[in-house]
Design a protein that fits this description.
CATH superfamily: HUPs
Number of domains: 1
CATH class: Alpha Beta
Number of strands: 11
Strand content: 25-35%
Number of helices: 6
Largest sheet: 9 strands, mixed
Order of helices and strands: EEEHEHEHEHEEEEHEH
CATH topology: Rossmann fold
Helix content: 25-40%
Radius of gyration: 21 Å
Strand order of the largest sheet: 9-8-7-10-6-1-4-5-11
CATH architecture: 3-Layer(aba) Sandwich
Distance between the termini: 58 Å
Shape: globular
């Protein structure tokens, strides 16, 4: 079974986000970048599938600039067998990403495609669902547990109402929740080996996909700084402040 894992290069979750002075977006100059945490869970699940004898090959794929090779090398260091970079200077919207990934699926013919349920930079939570629609494949989103049985998989999903277990047939799309697993840390020898492994680079334009943006970012602004809290002497004073100052009662 071949597994295709989509990964994305994002601003590291430990970095404090800064907005550009002109409000056109997030400042990424000299900022530490890393693999999207949800995608790390997806890659870890694929690696565990291979260890269990379920998967035979793991292919990591990303859409981005040449700098995204760092993210793919992280995937190779963790244990991915191959890596594909779809070179795109302008970051496509989720629909564009899904269209590009659908072309890669047609070429690679995987039985399972795993994506993080969302990326921490835009939180769109759309690519996996759009990819499933384009391929007309079953999908299991927000997976916190996966058990493969022959040509199907039992998925436990995280929902607002609690846990839901579904069974879907393969080939299928799976999007992962953080509670699915604990991603491994690559060892130094694996990191060194990954630096020498080739990465297949394909130009996004070569797929003949319409990547025309459908959204326009008008402005980006940082949230207002939270006001410092105050200490109240008793419950009566708390109620008074909530009623007369905060206006929540």
């Amino acid at each position: 079974m071949k597994v295709l894992v989509a990964v994305k290069r994002v601003v590291d979750y430990n970095v404090r986000i800064r907005v550009k002075s002109d409000g056109s977006g997030v400042d990424t100059d000299n900022v530490v970048m890393s693999m999207n945490p949800f995608d790390e869970n997806g890659l870890e699940e694929a690696l565990r599938m291979k260890q269990a004898g379920v998967a035979t090959e793991i292919v990591a794929v990303t859409v981005g600039t040449e700098q995204s090779q760092d993210t793919l090398r992280s995937a190779l260091a963790m244990g991915a067998d191959r890596a594909i970079l779809i070179n795109a200077e302008e970051a496509p919207e989720p629909l564009g990403i899904a269209k590009l990934l659908s072309k890669v699926v047609e070429q690679e013919q995987p039985q399972v495609v795993i994506l993080g349920k969302q990326a921490i930079d835009d939180d769109s939570n759309q690519t996996g669902q759009m990819l499933a629609a384009l391929l007309n494949w079953p999908q299991g989103t927000f997976a916190s547990k996966a058990e493969f049985e022959g040509d199907s998989v039992n998925l436990t999903r995280e929902t607002d109402a609690g846990l839901e277990t579904i069974k879907i047939n393969l080939p299928a799309i799976i999007t992962t929740d953080l509670r699915l697993n604990e991603p491994r840390l690559p060892k130094l020898p694996d990191i060194m080996k990954a630096k020498k492994k080739p990465i297949d680079m394909v130009e996004a334009a070569s797929f003949g996909v319409d990547l025309t943006p459908r959204l326009e970012v008008v402005s980006v602004s940082a949230p207002e700084a939270r006001k410092p809290g105050v200490i109240v002497a008793n419950a009566a004073e708390l109620i008074d402040k909530l009623k007369n100052e905060a206006g929540v009662l």
